[in-house]
C-alpha cells in the first residue's frame, strides 16, 4: 500500500486496467470482439498513450512473449518420462566438462541429472530424444495424398505449364544427381508429370518425388514408366543406385542399358557389379534370384568372352568380402552355370580356372622373392630361375587369354626380360610372350590393393572416350589395371621414364630428352623436336592436368609422372584421390615450371595452346558431369580406401570440382586461376626438393 500512495488516482487506474486491455486486445485479434472501425481507432490510440506513459515512468523491465496462432484447433500432448530413483544408470549422462565439445542430437532435450553427484561436484546431463522428431507432418501428408490421388490423374494429363513454370521446370532438370528437391519442387514435378514424359532428363527427378511407402503413388509412378521417352545411360545408372529400391524401376533401368553395346558396357561394368549390392535376392533359396540386373550381366558376359573375363574377376574380388561375399559367390555360381550352356562353355570355364591358378602361382612367387634376405640382383636371379623351373610351368603355358587383357593370348613368361622393381613391395616386372610372337610386359603386385587404381584408370578411360566424341584427342595413356584380389593384381607396363629421372639426366630440360629421341632440325620442327611429339606432349599435359584435378588425385611428385620417348606424359600410382594428400598445401594440379619450360615458357604460343586444351577439356567433361557422378555414386559401398573414409561425401567431393554452379565462361575463368595457382605455388617446390633428397638417400 505504501507504493500505491505515491501514485495518483489516474496512474492507479492505468496500472489496474492495463492487464484487462491486453486481454481485450487478444480477444479482438482472435475475432471474438466485433470490430467497429471508428471506435477501434479511438480505443487503440488511448491504449497506446497509456502504454507509453507507463513505459516512460517505470523502472521495471518487460518481456513480451508472442505465441503462435492457428486457424484450426491444435491438440497438444506431453509424454512423461519415468525417472527411476533406484538406478543412477537409468539415464545416459554426459559429463558437464564435455558439453562444449559434443553436439546434442537435433531435437533432443537435456535435463540436469541430480543423481549424478560425484566428489568433484560436477553435474551430468541426460539426453532425451524427441520421439516425434522423425514423424511426418499429418497435415502435409494428407495434403499430398489429396493432391496426388487417382482422381487428379485424368486432369493432370492435359496440364501444360505457362512460360514461368516451364522455366522453373527446366531449372529443376539441370540439377545434378546429388541435389535434393524441395517440397514445392516435388509437387511441381508431380503436377506436370505427364507433360514431362517427353523429357528424358525428367524421369529421375520425377521418381525422386514419389513417396515409395504410399502404394497409390507407387502404382501411378510405375504406370508412367512405359509412357516415358527413352533415357540416357547416365540416368539409367542413377536408377540402379541405393536410392531406388523399387524392382519395376530397376528393371526399367536395366532395359535401357540393353541398348548399350559391349564396348560401352565394359566402361560401366565395374559400377554395375557394385550395383548388385542394392539388388533383391532370395536368401532362402540359393538357386533362385529375382534380379533383372544379374540376369542382364550374365547374359551379356556369356555372349562376349572379353566382357565375361572382366565380369569374372570383378566377382572374384568381391567374393572375398566378409559382408557381401556370399551374395557375389551366388552370382558367380549362376554365371558358371550359364557358361556351361553356351558353345565351348566347358573350355571357357577351364580357361578361367587356369587364369586363377596362374595368379595364385605368381602371388606365391612374389611372396617368396620378397621374403629373401638378399640384394636386388640376387633376387632377380632367383626370380628368373623360378620362371625357368619346369615344375613351375611359367616359362611355357598353355595358350591362355591374359586376365589383364583377354584380347592377348599368352603362352609363357620370358625370364630374361623379367625383373624386380626397387620399391618397398618389390613388384615383379614380367614379360609375357604372346601367341602371335609379340611381347606383353606387365607388373604384378602383391601386398597392394589395386582397386583404387583400377577405378581411376576406368574413369580416365571413360573421360578419354567422352573427349574423343567431341573430336578432342588429348593423347592420354589409360594403361590397364586389374585387381585380381584384395591384395594383388596386374598392371600394364608402359616403357617410359619418371619425369624426375628425365630432369636429372638432362639438366632439368625436358626438350633435351624429347630431342634426343625424336630430333627434327627442319622447318617443321619445334625447338628441334618432331612437331608431332611436341603436340603429343602438350595435349597429354593438358589432359592429365584436368583429369587429376577433377578426381582430386594427391601425392603428385615427379616420380609418379612418367614421360615416354614419343612425348606421352601420364600419371601413375593413385594411392590418394578425392582431395586426400599426404603433403600439406597441395596445388590443384601438378604443373611444375620445368613442364612449362618444355613448351617454350609461359609466353610461348604452345603454352597458350596448352591452356586452350585445358579449357576445352574442362568444359566438355562438365557437360558429362552427371555420368561421372552417377558412376561414383554406385561405388559408395565399395571397399576402395579413399571412398570408405567418407562414403557419404565422395560424390560431393567430385561434384564440387566441376563447379556446376558457374556458367561456362565463369568456369573457364575459374580454371584459368587454378592453372596460375598451380604454376606459381611455392610450397610444392619445397616439398619436391625434400622428396628428391629422400629418394637420393634411399638409393
From TrEMBL:
One GO process term, biological-process aspect: cellular response to potassium ion starvation
Residues in PIK helical domain copies: 156-338
Protein name per UniProt: Phosphatidylinositol 3-kinase VPS34
Superkingdom of the source species: Eukaryota
Reactions catalysed: a 1,2-diacyl-sn-glycero-3-phospho-(1D-myo-inositol) + ATP = a 1,2-diacyl-sn-glycero-3-phospho-(1D-myo-inositol-3-phosphate) + ADP + H(+)
Nucleotide-binding among keywords: yes
One annotated GO molecular function: protein kinase activity
Organism: Hesseltinella vesiculosa
